[in-house]
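Chapter review: from sequence to fold.
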Amino acid sequence: MAVVREVAELVRDLPDPVPEEFTREFQSGTIHAPVPEPFFDGLVAESRKAPARVWRAVIDRLLAFDDTNELADIKAPTLVVGGDRDAIFSPAEQRAAAARIPHARMTLYQDTGHSPNWERPDRLAADTLTFIRET
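The token string follows.
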């Protein structure tokens, strides 16, 4: 969560409208594998729609929220997917979260950042379909 604390400092004085440079740098910091440029530009454009106060509120609540103890209450079959190059949650943190969920299956994608759904959409779709079929 050290990265989230760093982001909290960055958004503290974030102006409105949120600068494109900030959102571009923020979003690029969450990915490791390249994504198509039009897709990335769309992420940046959508991110800029949120006013600075929303960025601050999200980060503040993320830092204040801890559902670690509730993970053991999950009863549904659970597939936890993460990236080994996630800049926000380390592989160890991802594995620890998955281990708290009874019978969860953990899949850690190599050379992937925080957003496997952006970076490896075909693989994620295939893995999700396999998981659904098996459960």
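Two observations follow directly from the output. Residues 121-134 form the longest helix (14 residues). The mean pLDDT is 95.
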